[in-house]
Amino acid sequence: MTEKAQTKDISVPKTMKAWVLGDPEELRLVEKPVPEPGPAEVLLHVDAVAICGTDVEILTKGLPAWIQGGLPFNKNFTPGHEYMGTVVKLGAGVDEYALGDRVAVEVHAGCGRCERCRMGMYTSCLNYGLNYGEHNKGHRANGFTTDGGFAEYAVNHVNTLIHIPDEMSDEEATLIVTAGTATYGLDALGGLIAGESLVVTGPGPIGLMSVAVGKALGAQPVILTGTRDARLNMGIRLGADHVINVRKEDPVEAVKRITGSKGVHYVMECSGAPNALNEAMDMVNRGGRICLAAFPGEPVPVDLAKLVRNNIYVYGIRGEGKSASRRAAALMIQKRFDAKIIHTHTFSLEELPTAFKYARERIEGAIKVVLRVS
Ligand SMILES: [Zn+2]
Ligand SMILES: [Zn+2]
Hints:
This protein is an alpha/beta fold.
């Protein structure tokens, strides 16, 4: 495979176009050296990259990006983590991939040497951001602690790559990591959820993918709550059996009505609304489980007595651990749901500021905005 791959000639330039973060809210398009893949790494030509809510957080507040032991501003750092591309150069010892392979990427490689990474929880690496100077544990999370995909080229560890078939478009492949986050959450909740009931609160990208993956895994019924009918209708197209517009109907009462007052087995909380956990506790039955994939900006009061009395389990998830993205990709390759429904807008790499504006202000109903990189 390697031999054949290396006979293919893919020329790689010395420098590339890349966006870098200056001060907060400041992105600059610069010319940077094309990075070199090390052992167990490949160089990708980035073909497409999606914008995520977390990219907006990094642009404004810096965190959760962490570069050289501090905030990522003015450090020549390239953000962007939801990308896909083509393998154009192999690091030493790489035979898992060949030149010309199309791949999607997971964000987090982790450090590979801490307790959590060894357990497959590389999104919760204990050495997060330790990849510099005396503190070098080799941590990688592209677009967070190492350079990401708002650029023509990026280096990825082979553990973070997922083969994608020719039939899947570049744009769809950028959505794998979002579906992977939903899959990680549903895995935390129960994994084998066929025949069990699921409420998803909040029809953002992760909420909509939670509906799709939950349905593909056999959950029944799948109920989606939200405030906007257009998003709720997308939820129906992705497999929701019931949708509840919380502006028109009390969501707890609606869930009780749909489930014959029993409540559901699982709630996947993707809204970040201040009262979402309290409401989720009223939606699950005793012994039920709640996964928090979003959170409010400020601490909020929670009725802990209700949690304890009813033996309710609450899980927090960070990103897309335990190879969840690979499993999400498998569902998408099998066409178990059409993730493309949430891709609404496309721009070029050079148009990143406009793309951000569309994503942040939800212009023309924007959900997932994707940049194509030529
Ligand atoms: Zn993201
Ligand atoms: Zn680690």
